Amino acid sequence: MEKITDTIESIYEILGRVTDPEVPVLTILDLGIVRNVAFKGDELIVTITSTYTGCPAMDMIAANIRMELAAAGYKNVRIEQSIRPAWTTDWMSEAGKEKLKEYGIAPPDKRFTIPEDGVGCPRCGSNNTRLVSEFGSTACKALYQCRDCQEPFDFFKCH
Amino acid sequence: MKATLDYILHLADNALILGQRNAEWCGHGPVLEQDIAISNISLDLIGQARSFYQYAAELKGNGTTEDDLAYLRDERQFRNILLVEQPKGDWAFTTLRQFLFSSYQQLLFQKLTTHDDERLAAISEKTLKEVNYHVRWSSEWVIRLGDGTEESRSRILSALASIWTYTGEMFMPESFETASGIVVTDLETAWKEKIKTSFAEANIDAPENTFMRSGGKKGIHSEHLGFILAEMQYLQRSYPGCEW
Ligand SMILES: [Zn+2]
Predict the structure, then answer these.
(1) Scanning every residue of chain B, which has its alpha carbon at the shortest distance from the alpha carbon of A133?
(2) Which ranges of B61-174 would DSSP assign to H, the alpha helix?
(3) Which of A86, A143, A159 sits opposite B33 (nearest CB)?
(4) What is the tens place of the pLDDT at every residue in B117-174?
């Protein structure tokens, strides 16, 4: 019961250890999918939203949230899904965007809300790149190739 | 006005069956990038279906789950339109169908985002963002094939000739639509305008005076639905409640 007096901040700190199984450099806080944290009686309610409706990582993320919280002593946890407002890449943190780039994925870029040639190559920085396909290895990414360093890369689409 | 359970099921069934059809391309696409694209679209559609089934399950109550609705209903209980259950055909048929259906979904969901039923509005708003991708991708294929080689053009023309008879059902009002405050007939003009633009670029014409088949919304399906359900529902029916 003493856990109930804990702060919401400390819960966020724990949630910051949960990563996206498909893009493991990003935490769920970087992604902006944690919408609310609240205590109701002795129950901890974590509200999350999905990135894309069919994202297969969501169930795993919910399970990982439970595990992290349980490890910190929170057993009575309810995970709620919110749909509206719909998730947008605007909710991704700046730190998250930097991490993506280091990881080799071009972060969301407002100049390319509709994917087209020219997204900056995360490896060499060139804008001489071409869109290969609007659909990449996961729903949230588009596939590109750099014409200068020749590397193929993913672009995290604006959404 | 709240949407009726049957209407939510209709939306869910449309998405699930087309998602399942498109998934047949997984590992068989013409090139790797397009195999990934159609599989992604499949995943989006199945995600849509899940959102609608989850809502339908709550409306139904009595411990109903989304899986019960997807895996344990019979053919006659499915409310999807005939268009989505037709076999995937060739790449021209698949992309053309996607274009015709996604263009319809785009107009419909734009409308539904302001529906009184908040849950329906929320799902539609979220889904619309994904549908916009589907429309763009599929319209590019229709244009590429129509305005491509002799072979690609003959493929898209024959796809169009066989698919057109299934498009009318989208705009034939069914009682669950009327009861949910949806007027599908209102969408037809905008839909025709929308597809005409891409058809013009593809240099193809929409057929006219075609007999329009219907029945899917009433649960009277073509012979193809039974087969797709048999494949999709086999595991849950043989091993009830089984999980990964
Ligand atoms: Zn480069």
Answers:
(1) B33
(2) 66-71, 82-85, 91-112, 118-146, 150-163
(3) A143
(4) 999 999 999 999 999 999 999 999 999 999 999 999 999 999 999 999 999 999 999 9
Q: Which of B126, B129, B131, B132 to mutate to test the interface with A (most CBs of A within 10 A)?
A: B126
Task: Identify residue B79 by its one-letter amino acid code.
Answer: R
B214 falls within a domain: yes
Predicted interface score ipTM higher than 0.90: no
End-to-end distance of chain B based on CA atoms, in angstroms? 39
Record: fold of A8-87: GMP Synthetase; Chain A, domain 3 (3.30.300)
Question: In chain B, what residues touch A137 (CB-CB under 8 Å)?
Answer: 36
CB contact (8 A) between residue A53 and residue B50:
yes
Nearest-angstrom CA–CA distance, B161 and B152: 14
Of B41, B45, B126, nearest to A83 by CB-CB distance is: B126
Residue-level pLDDT at B243 = 84
CATH class of A91-156: mainly beta
Does the residue B113 lie in any domain? yes
pLDDT digits (tens, 9 = 90+) for A13-52: 999 999 999 899 999 999 999 999 999 998 999 999 999 9
Residue B133 lies in a domain: yes
Q: Where are the domains of chain A?
A: 8-87, 91-156
